[in-house]
Amino acid sequence: MEGQIVSLILHGCKVARELESNLPKLADDPNMLSKSCDEVIKAFGTAKERLYTQDPTAHDPGHMYLFREPQESQQPKIEASLQGWLRSSYTQTMDMFPMQLQAERSPSFNMQESGSNAVLVAGLGGGEVEGSARSWSMGGDQLRPLDASDSGIGSSLQRQRRRKDDGERRTVKMAAPRIGNTEIPPEDGYTWRKYGQKEILGSRFPRSYYRCTHQKLYQCPAKRQVQRLDHDPNTFEVTYRGDHTCHMSSTAPSIPPLPLTATEITHEMAQIITTQPPQSNSVPLSRWLSMEHFSLRAGAVRSTSGMVVGGGAGPSSTRSGKEVECPVADMADAMFNSGSSSTSNSMDWFLGDKWESGDKEGK
DNA sequence: GTAATTTGACCTTG
DNA sequence: CAAGGTCAAATTAC
């Protein structure tokens, strides 16, 4: 079973690599491009499916919980990790490649996975905004043009706010962690800053509003709403709006919010898995992943990471006095060094009840 | 001291 | 006008 999955993933990687190396040639051939993309997606998708069917009872709230319970038995964890990564990478890829994937998903994209804890429920808020929804991510021309300066207190100008159709909305359902504090909203690798909380009619739990921590620095328009489900308090419904434009910055999110190529996805999985505690039993999957894909890093990953695929709105690809790190390294760094300034760092859930106040009931 | 969160007020939308 | 979304001063955390 596992061997099949591995070969599926390998196949996906292979196709992705081929696609990457042939990209210049294929650029003029949308058919071939599409075909290759299909194949990659199919391979990973199938692998993922199998992972789920392999252990339908697995309750994996997503990659954010990968590092919980280091003392747990390793083998199931590895698989859960892989699942989490596949799933999160997949949804994240959806998140980052909306334009590319648009053609491949139905207008009302609906990815449901039985037994899955991260479910992309809805694609677009409305089909008609599809074309215009993204134009702001490049120049910020129509999205909150006054955002940075509309704090016009003292000026006679009224605050100007825009809400109407500020972009695609993607809703993901994520399970609360079962261990530790189940109140915490799900981590997703980005750093968010809470800017509001609101009681929602008919909901027992308030909705929390977050924006990208780097909004100011890079005019990153990404936002998210976190709402605990009424009927299932263990599940959070997370709605994302806007795309991160802070991808390539070093001061930007420490965890790579990069659009992941297929090779990157697997590579990151490898990275994650190889960072499992050393007492880990021999894990064929992880060994394969680490051996197979470390070599990708220098070539494929780096080159693709230098290419801002999702619109190229990210800030400069160099950081002050320092070359852009491989996002994976960044992530690992962030994961284990907790150097980020954000308190919503990805390690928070790992260690404490930090988020509690962020989603407490009532005001 | 700086950055993040809280929270009531304000704004937009339907 | 009600509800949802955002702002920003005050507060809290680091």
From TrEMBL:
InterPro entries: WRKY_dom (IPR003657), WRKY_plant (IPR044810)
Domain of life: Eukaryota
Residue ranges of every copy of the WRKY domain listed in the record: 187-249
Molecular functions (GO terms): DNA-binding transcription factor activity; sequence-specific DNA binding
Composition skew (Basic and acidic residues), residue ranges: 351-363
Region of interest called Disordered, as start-end residue ranges on this chain: 131-171, 338-363
Protein name (Swiss-Prot/TrEMBL): WRKY domain-containing protein
